[in-house]
Specification:
By secondary structure, the chain is an alpha+beta fold. It has two domains: about 15-175 and about 225-315, BirA Bifunctional Protein, domain 2 (2-Layer Sandwich); about 325-435, 3-Layer(aba) Sandwich (Rossmann fold), CATH 3.40.50.800. It contains 16 helices and 16 strands. Helix 2 (about 45-55) crosses helix 4, helix 5 runs parallel beside helix 8 and helix 6 (about 175-185) runs antiparallel to helix 7 (about 195-200). The longest helix has 20 residues, at about 15-35. Bound molecules: zinc ion (2 copies). One zinc ion (ZN) binds near residues 193, 212 and 213.
C-alpha cells in the first residue's frame, strides 16, 4: 500500500514553502512595528474551550472539529481557529492584570473537517493577531491597517484587494437587529434552505453567510440600520480614520457582511480578492469585546483578525527563491580533490567571505566523489544547480577548476591560485552566473 497524506492535507513544499516563508517574514516585520509579541498555543486544546469561545451552535463546533479522547479520557479537539487559545492563554497567565494592553500574534496550522475543495484544506494555515485592552475606534482602524500592511509587504497590492468593513452592533442593539432579520427570514421561510430555516430561531445572522440563500438576500435588513448611538458613533469614527488620505487606503462599507462566529461585536472586516474565484476571502476579523468575559474573565475589549496563509500564498510568487544561486561541487575520487571541493563549498557559503563576494544568497552542495563526473552532472541537473564547479583529475593536476553554467552550457576554466587571492574564482562564478 502506498501511503499518502490524509484527506484534505498536503505537504507544503517547493515554491509554496518559499512563499510561506516570505509571507511569515512580512508578517513578523509588521507585527514588530505594531507592537505585537508572538504566542504559540497548543495545537490541541480541551473541547470545552471551543464550545465556549466559538459557540456550540456554530458549524465549526457542530460539524467540523477533529475531536478525540486521550488515554486519560480527556475530551480534546484540534484547534479549528486561533482566537480561543489566545484568550485562554491571556486569562491563564493573568495578562488582564498587567495594565490591560497586550498584543499577541500567532502563525500555524488550524484544523477543520470540511469537505476538501480547491483552496480549502482540512489542515490550513493562519496568521492571526489579537489585541486586548483598547476599546477605541482608532484601534479598529489600526488593526485593519496592520492586516493591510502584512499583505502589502508580502507582495500584494492594495488595489488588487477589497477591504470590506461593517458593524454588527453591541449587546444593546444586536438583539434588535436579530429580531428584524428573523422576521425578514420568516417571511421568506418557504424559499430558504433547510439549514437557514433552522437558523431563523437559533442564529439568524448566519443565514446571510449561507452559500445558497446569502446571495439572494440583497434586500435583507442590515445591522447598521439597528445600531445604537454609541455603536453608530464608533463605526463612524472607524471609517473616519480609515479614510485619512495620508494612509492611501481604500475600503468598502459592506452592510451585509457578518462573520460566522458568535463572538464578534461592532467592527467586522473581511479581505477579498478576485483572483481566487468563489473562495475569495483571504482574511477576516473583528472586535470581540464580550469574549474574554464570556470565557470567565473580566470585561476586556479586544479585536483581532486571521489571514489564510494557503490562499494568500496562492496569490504570491517567491521572491527570495529566485535570487539564490545554487552551486554544485563535482569532483573525482582523489582525496585532494575532495578536500578542495569541501573547502570551496564552505568558503562560498561563508557569510563574510564567499557569499559577500558573490553579492547574493547561495546554496552549495557536494557531489559524490566516488561516482563519475558524468553521473554527478546528472545529479546536479536534477537538484536544479545553476552552476557546477568541477574538480576532476585533470583540473586537480593543473590547479584549475572548471565552472559550468547549467542553463547556457557555457564553461570557464579558472586558475584558482593566481594573484595569491584564494577567493578570486568566486568573481568568475559571479560573472558566469550573471550571463
Ligand atoms: Zn450598540
Ligand atoms: Zn441557506
Amino acid at each position: 500500500m502506498r501511503l499518502s497524506a490524509p484527506r484534505g492535507t498536503r505537504d507544503i513544499k517547493d515554491r509554496e514553502v518559499l512563499v510561506f516563508r516570505e509571507l511569515e517574514a512580512a508578517a513578523l516585520d509588521a507585527f514588530r512595528r505594531w507592537g505585537y509579541e508572538e504566542l504559540r498555543t497548543p495545537i490541541f486544546e480541551s473541547r470545552e474551550l471551543f464550545r465556549r469561545a466559538v459557540g456550540e451552535t456554530t458549524d465549526i463546533v457542530e460539524k467540523e472539529m477533529f475531536d478525540f479522547t486521550d488515554r486519560g479520557d480527556r475530551e480534546l479537539s484540534l484547534r479549528p481557529e486561533g482566537t480561543a487559545g489566545v484568550v485562554r492563554a491571556y486569562l491563564e497567565h493573568s495578562w488582564d492584570k498587567t495594565g490591560g494592553i497586550r498584543k499577541l500574534f500567532y502563525m500555524g496550522p488550524m484544523f477543520r473537517a470540511e469537505r476538501p475543495q480547491a483552496g480549502r484544506y482540512r489542515e490550513f494555515w493562519q496568521i492571526g493577531a489579537e489585541s486586548f485592552g483598547n476599546p477605541s475606534p482608532q484601534e479598529d482602524a489600526d488593526t485593519i491597517m496592520l492586516a493591510a500592511h502584512i499583505l502589502k509587504w508580502a507582495g500584494l497590492e492594495w488595489k488588487d484587494l477589497c477591504f470590506h468593513v461593517n458593524s454588527l452592533g453591541c449587546q444593546e442593539c444586536r438583539p434588535k437587529y436579530r429580531i428584524a432579520l428573523a422576521s425578514y427570514l420568516e417571511n421568506r421561510r418557504a424559499t430558504l434552505c433547510e439549514n437557514c430555516r433552522a437558523r431563523i430561531e437559533r442564529n439568524p445572522l448566519r443565514a446571510l453567510d449561507c452559500k445558497i440563500d446569502g446571495p439572494t438576500m440583497t434586500d435583507a435588513p442590515a445591522p447598521v440600520g439597528s445600531l445604537c448611538q454609541a455603536c453608530k458613533a464608533h463605526f463612524d469614527e472607524v471609517k473616519f480614520y480609515l479614510n485619512r488620505p495620508e494612509l492611501g487606503f481604500v475600503f468598502q462599507e459592506s452592510p451585509r457582511l457578518v462573520r460566522g462566529l458568535d463572538y464578534y461585536t461592532r467592527t467586522v472586516f473581511e479581505i477579498t480578492t478576485e483572483g481566487l474565484g468563489a473562495q475569495n476571502a483571504i482574511g477576516a476579523g473583528g472586535r470581540y469585546d464580550g469574549l474574554v468575559k464570556q470565557m470567565g474573565g473580566p470585561e476586556v475589549p479586544a479585536i483581532g483578525f486571521a489571514l489564510g496563509m494557503d490562499r494568500v500564498a496562492s496569490l504570491l510568487k517567491p521572491r527570495e527563491g529566485n535570487r539564490i544561486l545554487r552551486v554544485f561541487f563535482a569532483f573525482t575520487g582523489r582525496s585532494s580533490n575532495g578536500a578542495k571541493a569541501t573547502v570551496w563549498a564552505n568558503v562560498l557559503r561563508d557569510k563574510d567571505r564567499g557569499e559577500k563576494r558573490l553579492g547574493r544568497p547561495v546554496a552549495a552542495i557536494l557531489g559524490d566523489g566516488g561516482a563519475s563526473l558524468k553521473s554527478q552532472m546528472r545529479k546536479a541537473d536534477g537538484w536544479g544547480a545553476d552552476v557546477v564547479v568541477i574538480c576532476g583529475d585533470e583540473e586537480g593536476d593543473k590547479k584549475k577548476m572548471r565552472l559550468k553554467d547549467m542553463k547556457t552550457g557555457a564553461e570557464n576554466d579558472v586558475d584558482y591560485s593566481r594573484d595569491g587571492d584564494d577567493d578570486v574564482w568566486i568573481d568568475s562564478l559571479k560573472i558566469l552566473a550573471s550571463t
